[in-house]
Here is the input.
Amino acid sequence: MGGSVSCCISPGESPKIHRREVELEECPITTTEDVSEDTGTYLQHISDRELPDELAQEANPSDHPRASTLFLNKSQTDVREKRKSYYLNHQMSPGLLTKKYSSCSTIFIDDSTVSQPNLKSTIKCVALAIYYHIKNRDSNRSLDIFDEKKHPLTRDKVPDDYSVVDPEHKLIYRFIRTLFSSAQLTAECAIVTLVYLERLLTYAEMDICPCNWKRIVLGAILLASKVWDDQAVWNVDYCQILKDITVEDMNEMERHFLELLQFNINVPASVYAKYYFDLRSLADENNLSFPLEPLNNKRAQKLEAISRLCEDKYKDLCKSAMRKSVSVDNLVGIKNTHAVLS
Here is the structure.
């Protein structure tokens, strides 16, 4: 395949991307008149069906570690305004510092790491990222399956202005915290939830807005808890948390969510790490810094124990690699000996 251009390249224009002019000049496309009738339907060339790396990274930040996260881009406008307001208000009277800094006598550290994030701070940051998504959305593109008016989560009457009024950060945080607390989900699951949410917005070309944010967040949490956590929460368990939602509705929403993601639930470690550090940047820019505590003897011993554990694992890996290398050398030596004797 690929040896003959005429049998692989479609005469029509690619539905996803435009071919470069240079490629079109170097690879002439055979027209329909040049192909016999018995060749059957045309097949797109693989280069027509796949996005280039540059375009894919720009379009799918939840798939590629080098692409900038959507929530961090959407927060920049508000962050610049906050910095300007803070500078004007504190230019004459800076006041007390709200952030803790280490000194010669005291070292401040936080327990949040990329492998074990702080749960409360992570949920706050994820809620803030969703808040910026809603506030700075481009439009109001949505799907019926996520519309809260057509698929309500409670029996209470949905307000008439449900699709107009943007939710506050506290409301989003309380909604996510309730689900995580009741289902006993981890902080890592919150980060994966945000990855799935942005992947949905990119793949489905839709926006998260006041009319659909609860069901989109619920669907992302539902999927992340099943993929990430060892002890997954069943759909019926969420029906115990949200009393008025049915299992059939949960199943249908999950099915649509997966189809819109094109069943791509893989989260590379590099993408996970990018989202974690971007959430920390978002926290710093919005005065939601992860809690800092002074380093005392107990915490220092804990850090030392973790350091020793990591060091021992590294030594074991080195020893294992050395054994494999030695065994290969011995095998080569035995073969050479047999060759000489024969």
Remarks:
- The chain is about 55% helix and 0% strand.
- The CA atoms of residues 18 and 48 lie 8 Å apart.
